[in-house]
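Handoff note, outgoing to incoming analyst
You'll be picking up this chain. Sequence as last confirmed:
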Amino acid sequence: MEKFTEPCMVDLPRIYDPRGNLTFIQNGDAVLPFTIERVYWTYDVPAGEERGGHSHHEGREMLVALGGSFCVNLFDGQRWQTFTLNRPYKALYIPPGYWRTLDNFSSGSVCMVLTSTHYTEDDYVRDFDEFLKLSRRDEA
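Most recent structure output, in case you need it:
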């Protein structure tokens, strides 16, 4: 059984140093519930813009605010949750099957995403109505 089954905030390791702190993530750590297959980051998001707007069939992700802050809004087909990311030592784990949007980006914010899969368009659900149908498949 997977250790992480729902979205959750994860404390990342921190090494305190008077010259500046260090945080890391590496494959094989208990804090990382998957092997990293891809890393990407978004930045220079204009004021008022939204990112995301999709779900994944299989891909699992961890999001980290490397700089600045932003909100991650998650929907499981029944309820919305909002997480504010604003610390580089906190990550948000998102399992498959959650619609996500990112908004409220502060100036200079950087969102790093660690994923469990290589990019493949087949893993994405980009239509909200299709997502709603898929999220209710267990109710039929």
